[in-house]
Amino acid sequence: MQALLKLGIRAILHDWNYWYKDFPKVKPRPEYQEKMQRLRRSDEIIVLTGMRRSGKSTLLKQEMENLARDHDKIQLLYINFEDPRFPPAMDSSILDQILATYRENINPDKEVFLFLDEVQNVQSWEKWVVTTYELQKARIYLTGSSPALLSGEIASSISGRYLNIDVYPLTFWEFLLFHDISCISINGYTTNRTMINRLFTGYLTWGGFPKVTMLEEDLKKEELLSYFHTILLRDIMGRYKLRNYDILLTFVEYLLTNDTKQNNIHSISKALAISYETTHDYIDYLKQVYFFFEVRNFHYSLKKQLVSDIKFYTLDTGFVYSVSFSEKIGRLYENVVCNALIREGREIFFFRDATHECDFIV
């Protein structure tokens, strides 16, 4: 039985790894690649978090390709725990079996760079990862759904041992690179003005998920709706054991229809006829999977700030257009600005009183 299990693991590893084949051709994301190269020097565990389909797995493979310039490819071990050939209920013993199979058949004695993709599907992976790190058995990279990786107990169990990179859909600059346009100055814009303006309209409409960016126009909406429902079903319904998908769907559609507008938990609860507690929980779940960002009304008093109205901004404007179409294009512009500020790590607020209004205070 053990021999059959190892045979199955070996087949999975051969399918996913690039020991004897070329790396896939993908569009580069220079800022993330440079950051990973810089963090690599720390020897800490590197954790990539962010919404599903934002490009985490592709960044891992680009990091592997970069490492292969100075290391033997057999030193790079990539495991995708969403492969259906793995058992549905996995614990950390599967990690021992994978590493043992790899050592016996591929790399018996050289240094290992271990890439664990969607690691949240393995129960009790944290202790195994920390032990492997402490015993210097491998250099470790992790990706997974953000709630699973950023919950308090996990943060405490690997605290002081990891460095985190938040991965977002494409910025507009990256979006242009994906369309083979490099624009780093006003001269670059002037030269390509017509094309850049047309592409920006597409960016506002369909957002910046890497795969969506490269699809034909008539396939973009279907792809975005697939992401949308998968996030709700797997990352929220599945993780938090919710029972009523229709209520969650209506809730998210309501927030998307009203994103960039002032809101509060009481008004949302009243509008949807659901409890205050459920409203609060759903907002928290959506923030944890990066679906929405929350921006508060600025006040010098923290107490007043915490009870003020809130604006919600979605991670990707493609969801606004594909799920809750709005003719108010100004909302999409405002959402893009908010996302750009958040990607820069800025703390942002809006301001509104009886006589004044400002969309963003940075």
- Tell me how many strands there are: 12
How far apart, in Å, are the first and last alpha carbons? 60 Å
Compute the average pLDDT. Answer: 91
Which CATH class of the largest domain? Alpha Beta
Q: How helical, in percent, are the residues?
A: 40-55%
With strands numbered from the N-terminus, the spatial order across the biggest sheet is: 2-4-6-1-7
CATH H level of the largest domain: which superfamily? P-loop containing nucleotide triphosphate hydrolases
What about the largest sheet? Answer: 5 strands, parallel
Describe what this molecule looks like in 3D:
This protein has 362 residues and is α/β, with parallel strands linked by helices. It has two domains: 2-166, Rossmann fold (3-Layer(aba) Sandwich), CATH 3.40.50; 216-361, Arc Repressor Mutant, subunit A (Orthogonal Bundle), CATH 1.10.10. The chain is 52% helix and 14% strand. It contains 18 helices and twelve strands. A five-stranded parallel β-sheet has the order 2-4-6-1-7. A three-stranded antiparallel β-sheet has the order 8-10-9. A two-stranded parallel sheet has the order 3-5. Strand 11 and strand 12 form a beta hairpin. Helix 1 (2-16) crosses helix 4 (93-105) and helix 10 (193-206) crosses helix 17 (317-323). The longest helix is centred in the middle third of the chain and has 24 residues, at 217-240. The radius of gyration is 22 Å and the shape is globular. The termini are far apart. 31% of the residues are buried. The mean pLDDT is 91.
